[in-house]
Inverse folding.
């Protein structure tokens, strides 16, 4: 089982990375082949809506995203982890998602077949400082449409409120255990459609 674990937080060793690392630990325990992608380590420009991908299916911007498209398409499971910033995902996560417009264009404009017939799965990990009922609604909608564009089925995720200072997630009564268990489950499941 190939898993791409994407860190969308710009704060290294912060709450989101700690949570994602637990999931990765669980997935590796079960024999999952996990690649961790730290978005902030890459140069990913925002989409400029040049329209090029609408006819070619390829993004015209020559930056690190060109190395990430194949990674996105070759794995069985994609986990994306982002804290909530202004009720959405972080800017680097959004830039990465917007650049998947090229994959959206391949699917919906050019009607290209997916590279694999496998059911690929997508999960979302998120957390935020406040406790509002709708805290994750905006970001989750974005993530659902992202997974649709890259031909992955959204399978849910983990969401934690009241997490703000670096290290807060370690004091949550169940978060890291839940992430570890989700990581294990992801790699035990062959096809959970
Ligand atoms: C620019 C910015 C915007 C934020 N917006 C929200 C928000 O809308 N709602 C919320 O509950 N927390 C918000 N937060 C708090 C973060 O989600 C919280 O501190 C989180 O624990 C950060 O995760 P990290 O340690 O992985 O960076 C914001 C933080 C920053 C820096």
């Amino acid at each position: 089982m190939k898993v791409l674990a994407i860190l969308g937080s710009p704060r290294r060793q912060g709450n989101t990375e700690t949570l994602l690392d637990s999931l990765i630990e669980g997935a590796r325990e079960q024999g999952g082949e996990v690649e961790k992608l730290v978005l902030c380590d890459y140069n990913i420009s925002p989409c400029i809506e040049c329209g090029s991908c609408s006819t070619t299916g390829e993004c015209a911007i020559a930056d690190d995203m060109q190395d990430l498209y194949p990674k996105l398409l070759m794995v069985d499971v994609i986990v994306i982890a982002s804290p909530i910033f202004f009720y959405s995902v972080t800017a680097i996560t959004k830039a990465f998602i917007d650049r998947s417009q090229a994959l959206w264009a391949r699917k919906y404009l050019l009607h290209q077949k997916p590279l694999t017939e496998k059911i690929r799965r997508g999960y979302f990990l998120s957390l935020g400082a406040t406790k509002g009922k709708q805290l994750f609604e905006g970001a989750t909608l974005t993530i659902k449409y992202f997974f649709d564009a890259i031909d992955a089925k959204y399978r849910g995720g983990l969401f934690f409120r009241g997490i703000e200072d670096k290290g807060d997630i370690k004091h949550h009564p169940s978060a890291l255990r839940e992430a570890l268990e989700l990581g294990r489950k992801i790699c035990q499941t062959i096809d959970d459609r």
About this structure: The CA atoms of residues 126 and 159 lie 5 Å apart. The pocket of flavin mononucleotide is lined by residues 9, 11, 14-16, 83-87, 127-130, 135, 163-164, 166 (CB under 6 Å). Helices lie at 15-29, 52-56, 65-74, 91-98, 101-109, 137-149, 168-171, 175-188. The chain has one domain: 2-188.
